[in-house]
Design goal:
This protein is mostly helical. It contains five helices and three strands. It has a three-stranded antiparallel β-sheet with strand order 1-2-3.
Length: 170
């Protein structure tokens, strides 16, 4: 059987990405997610940072013991596991790991990318909390569409930065 197609760089990249996804599935879905500590740690950090920013802007903020943040007088936001950003951290990291580039740059770029994705997610929660004081339908629309496009667009921008500035090209 001829496996020469495995020498193709695109095939190698895709196989590595799918392997990383499978490893992520095994680690996250079967161990980390059921344990809940990682998800709750990231959510608690998101709530804390969002609360601090909102209070810096003069809002009276309430938080709940269970993933809740809101501005006084509004219904508030409940941050679910799908919105904590962990899957985005993994998605971003898989691409950088799988794509060509020096390991020393990857060891810097991946944590910096994750930190900036987390900060963008915090700003998303801040904006959604403010929107929630005006209209629940605005909150839902922007959560579903606007911020999804912004976050994924930012991750794509990070990937393109990696490809154009830090990757090794033939």
């Amino acid at each position: 059987m001829n496996f020469s197609f495995l020498k193709n760089p695109v095939v190698k990249f895709l196989l590595l990405v799918f392997s990383l996804y499978f490893a992520w599935f095994l680690i996250y879905d079967l161990w980390l997610h059921p344990d809940e500590r990682l998800d709750l740690m990231v959510i608690d950090l998101t709530v804390l940072l969002s609360k601090n920013i909102l209070e810096l802007f003069g809002y009276v903020v309430y938080t709940g013991a269970d993933r809740l943040i809101g501005i006084d007088g509004a219904s508030g936001l409940w941050i679910g596991d799908n919105c904590n950003g962990i899957a985005l951290f993994a998605l971003f990291s898989w691409f950088i790991i799988a794509y060509k580039g020096k390991a020393k740059y990857k060891l810097i770029f991946i944590p910096l990318g994750i930190i900036t994705i987390q900060l963008l997610n915090v700003l998303r929660v801040v904006a959604l909390a403010i929107l929630d004081t005006h209209s629940r339908s605005w909150t839902e629309f922007n959560h579903t569409y606007t911020f999804t496009i912004i976050i994924y667009g930012y991750i794509f921008l990070l990937w393109m930065t990696w490809v154009n500035r830090f990757s090794e090209r033939n």
